[in-house]
Structure formats: C-alpha cells, structure tokens
Amino acid sequence: MSDRSKNPILLTGAHRSGKTYFAKAICSTGTVARIPEPLNRRTRPGLGGLRPTYTFHLINHRNGSLFESQLQDSLRYKYHLAKELKACIGFKDYLRIVRDLPISVFHRLTSKRPLIDDPFAVISADWFHTQLGMDVVIMIRHPASFVASIISQRYRFDFNNFLAQNDLMEEHLQGFADEIREFSLCEKPLIEQGILLWRVLYSIVAKYQQNYGSRWLFIRFEDLATHGEPAFLSAFETLGLTLTPAQKNTLARFINAPNHHEAKREGFTDLMGQFARPIEMQVKYFNLKLKEDEISHIRAGTGDVWPLFYSANDW
C-alpha cells in the first residue's frame, strides 16, 4: 500500500472481528473520524444509511451508481437532515439529531480523514477501492472465535441474502451454492451458520489477498491483541499516519484501558487480572467460550479456508 495519507479508509471484514476496536484506536489519534456502517440496514438516514435490499449487499459496476453519490456524501460528512427528520418517530430520534449533526459538521470543518467501518462492505471492498479510491483494511478473526461470538450474541443469518443476489453467487459463491441453498431452506444451528458464514466471507477475503497483496492491509485481530501498540503503529504507518508523542500516549491509554463493560457482558470479569492487557483475553476467546468438541467441529468445518490465514498452532 503506497503512501496515501489523505485517502479515505475502508475498514471491513466479518462482523465480530474486532474492526470497531481498531477503528476506535485509530480515531483516538484525532486525525481520523469513523463513519459507522452505511450498508447496515439499521443505520440512520441522516448518517448516510443506504438501506440496501440485502444484508451483505454486493455493490459492483452494475449497481454502483445507486450507491455512489450517497457514499460520497458520507465521506464528506454530509448530514442528511431532511431525510433524518422524515424518519423520526419519537423523542429519542430527535435527540440523535442533536448529537449527530454537530459531530458531522465538526468532522467536516476539521478535515478529518474519513474511515468507513462496515462489515457488510467486505464483499464489495474492491468496488470501494477502485470506484471511491479508498485504502482498504480487512480484519481477520480466528474462525472459532468468530463462531463463539455468533453463538454468544445469538446472531442468526438468513442465507437467502446471498442466494437472492445472482451477481454475488456467480462472482464469488459458486463453490458454496449447494450449501447456501440448503441453509436458506431451513434454519440451521448457530454453530453451523457461523461455520458457513465464516467460510463464505473469508474465501472472498482470500481472493482479495491474491489480487491486491500488499496494496491492501490484511490484519489478524489476534496479532493486534498479542503485540499491542507496535502492531497498531505498524498498521497506522502503512496507512500513512505518523503519530506525535502525545498521540502515541493517547493510543497507549486506549489500548491498555480495561473494558469492564465488555468483560462483564462476556462473563470475563474474574479473568481480567490474568492478562497484561484486557484485549489479550480475546486471543483465547474461543477456549473460554466453547467446549473441546465444539472447537474440533469448527476446525474441521472451516478446514478448507482457515489454513489460508492460520496455522495448526493457532488452535
């Protein structure tokens, strides 16, 4: 990836992969501003929510014109006040305007470098790169940790979102067509849904690695968790961000700050003292959350894809 310190950034990868943590870390430097999930169908219209037809809606040269103008507005921090007012239902919706509109104006006036943080853009990352000129960062997370998080959050996925998109099936998912069709007919257990979803998404990421190589930044979340500040600084340098000593101190405080809310939610509160930094718990996430037979099942179930990113020692 060449030095493009002014280019907008796309941060993507599977949901539950640690992207938002990386986004908040890079935004803690004060030079980058996060634009949250424009392809999430629940994102507010004022913030540039596109309300796509499908979850993981493929954007390509055929339909890109339907999305490009609004995404360009998001990269300029344009707040769509009229659309947001039209969508307001209750008092809380109006409070969101009071909160979000000044933030958008501030980011625009201070010329913050925009960062779109969106897991649903992972299947369209090459369009974001070629059409919008974005530097791409893709977060990779261990399949067992991903599936464990899916189970913990009870995140169900309707595979008809894939099956209904002919371009997506033809361009990326022909090898998974029979499985996707089977999963679309009846709901499978969460562990099986997580296995197939991880395979689908990271088979596409593997193609990106072949096509783009060092021009894009591929980061394993476990490497960030293990190596801490040096890993973040290396990634930031690749993106053309050079931090001052004060910014490095801010980053260090962010990385080392205990996340008691997350730890409590995950049931890890009693384990926090065992790790030098709170984020290190996430390296062992699947060992803390899953039984041995579940881990073995996930390892076997994702065996056609995980060796592209992990070694046997990572299990």
Number of DSSP strands?
5
Q: What characterizes the major β-sheet?
A: 5 strands, parallel
Query: What is the string of SSEs from the N terminus onward?
Result: EHEHHHEHEHHHHHEHHHHHH
Low-confidence stretches: none
Q: Helix amount, in percent?
A: 40-55%
Strand order of the largest sheet: 2-3-1-4-5
Mean pLDDT: 91
CATH class designation: Alpha Beta
- What's the N-to-C terminus distance? 30 Å
Portion in beta strands: 5-15%
Cα Rg? 20 Å
User: Helices and strands: which structural class?
Assistant: alpha/beta
Descriptive terms for the model:
single chain; 16 helices; 5 strands; 315 residues; Rossmann fold; five-stranded parallel sheet
Characterization of the model:
The chain is an alpha/beta fold and 315 residues long. The protein has one domain (9-314): Rossmann fold, CATH 3.40.50. Helices cover 49% and strands 8% of the residues. It has helices spanning 19-27, 68-75, 81-87, 91-109, 125-132, 143-153, 160-163, 166-171, 177-185, 190-212, 221-227, 229-238, 245-256, 260-266, 285-289, 292-301, and strands at 9-13, 32-36, 113-117, 135-140, 217-220. The protein has a five-stranded parallel beta sheet, sandwiched between helices. α3 packs antiparallel against α4 and α6 (143-153) packs across α10. The model has no long low-confidence stretch (mean pLDDT 91).
